[in-house]
Amino acid sequence: MVGTFRPRRLASAALLGALALGLAACGGEYPNSTFNHNTDFNADIDALWDKLLFWGTIVFIGVEAGLVYTIFRFRRRPGGATPKQVHGNTALEITWTAIPAVILILIAIPTVRTIFKTQAKAAPDALQVEVIGHQWWWEFRYPQYGITTANELYLPNGRTVNFQLKTVDVLHSFWIPQMGGKRDLISNRTNYLWFTPNKDLGTKAWNGFCAEFCGPSHANMKLRAYTVTPQEFEQWTAHQKQPAIFPALAAAPASAAGTAAVAPVPSGAGATPVVLAANQAGGPAAATDSAAPAAAPVPVWAFPREKLESEFGYTIPTAKIPALLSYDESLLATGDAARGKDLYSKSSCIGCHAIAGTPFNMAAVGPNLTHVGTRYTIAGGLYPNDAKHLAYWIKNAPAMKPGSLMPTLGKGLTDPKTKMVVNVGGLSDADIADIVAYLQALK
Questions:
Q1: Lowest-confidence range among 38-47, 125-134, 166-175, 257-266?
Q2: What is the structure's pLDDT at 298?
Q3: What is the pTM of this model?
């Protein structure tokens, strides 16, 4: 049986598809859209896109109109004359060669101008940020301030930021869509990218990603960027420059079990600063862990949590803990930060991480943990930085994130790389609860 062509049905399907696309395009603000003017880089690229789209649309309409005219004007008719040949018509050939050349010039001029502008060197007074890609997390260094942090990037509005992009292993690609630009991190080479967040951008949060396939956890290599006012940035850097001081609070009330309470991150510039003091009770080692004088308070400032949750929920990690993992979460309420510090200093953790102010703990293999208690994410931006997720991560990081270079530390578990059961040096659930309390106290 021969099928019949039904143009009405086809037209209805096409119209329905067009309406669906139109509705999808009107869905509101997209948190990872590049079509905005949050930075000078974005504005330049968007302006170039608009020009190319404009001229491309004109060319498309002109070419399609010519094709449609030719199809109907010179279609074959019964008894029709043979069309006139145009081969060898010099004027016509020059015309249809000149028109595309003019169009290409109109496209090339703004394109080349934008390339030269975005590839030029950053201003000499720009904020310098070293971006180092690891499998699978981001390291950020602020050499002008002596700050090293991980996965969370603070940028002052109105100030040019020059990123020096490096990788310690495979290729990665640094991308914050709403800030503009995407630049690869290439082995044995330093790439550069710079832009200036708008002065009036305000205190906002943005998603960032690795945009170059880099292994089994490529999709889990995320980052958070916070644009803040210059005053807030100075508050943040003033705290981040200080070494870790433990115990965390000068006036922290003790829990029923006698453990130090963990301070919440303050709610922005107007919040009462949390003071970290080196001379707080907690053992002789507490005072020696800090390079700061006992009388020098260190105010904590981080992106306001309530603002992050209410206005920028799309930046909060939503990854689920694998169902097969187990941990006695009731122990987290009794975690002792002082015991955790002692356990941490005797465990394999000190072979990979650095905590400024603790001389025995200056390794640089994994993320710097100096002020890890002020961060909102862990595991390369994959999980929220709370006691529950941190405990599961310490116990069995490879199960939480495929391919994680952090080994399994839970006692009695089998490490997926060595295929050996972790016994000597392994951590019990109670040990992990104490270490979690210690790390969260590092504000």
A1: 257-266
A2: 67
A3: 0.79
Averaged pLDDT for residues 103-109: 88
Most confident of 12-26, 126-140, 177-191: 126-140
Q: Please, how many CA atoms are within 13 Å of residue 324, restricted to the half-sphere of its CB?
A: 5
In the DSSP assignment, the letter for residue 244 is: P
Is pLDDT at 166 greater than 90 in this prediction?
yes
CA atoms 132, 138, 142, 146: torsion sign: negative
What is the DSSP code (8-state) at residue 349? G
Q: Among candidates 277, 271, 274, which has minimal Cα distance to 244?
A: 277
Per the rule left: phi > 0, alpha: psi between -120 and 50, beta: everything else, 430 is alpha
Instruction: Return d(Cα 40, Cα 62) in angstroms, integer.
Output: 33
Q: What is the chain's alpha carbon radius of gyration, rounded to the nearest angstrom?
A: 29
- Sign of torsion over alpha carbons 400, 317, 349, 395: negative
Q: Which long-range contacts (CB under 8 A, 24 or more apart) does 72-76 make?
A: none
pLDDT tens-digit readout, 229-260? 999 999 999 999 988 877 654 333 333 333 33
Q: Which of 66, 199, 43 lies closest to 118, judged by CA?
A: 43
Task: Tell me how many degrees the CA angle 138-291-270 measures, rounded to the nearest 5.
Answer: 65
AA identity, residue 147: I
DSSP state of 347: S
The average confidence (pLDDT) of the chain is 83
Beta strands 222-228 and 152-156: pairing type? Answer: parallel
For residue 385, with 0-12 CB atoms within 10 Å meaning exposed, 13-18 middle and 19 or more buried, which class applies? buried
d(C-alpha 133, C-alpha 173), whole Å: 8
The sign one gets for the Cα dihedral 258, 431, 377, 359 is positive
Q: What are phi and psi of 315, to 5 degrees?
A: -95, -5
Residue 273 in contact with residue 299, Cβ under 8 Å? yes
Let me know: does 190 contact 165? Beta carbons within 8 Å: yes
The model's pLDDT over 130-149, given as tens digits with 9 standing for 90+, comes to: 999 999 999 999 999 999 99
Structure tokens at 251: 């006036």
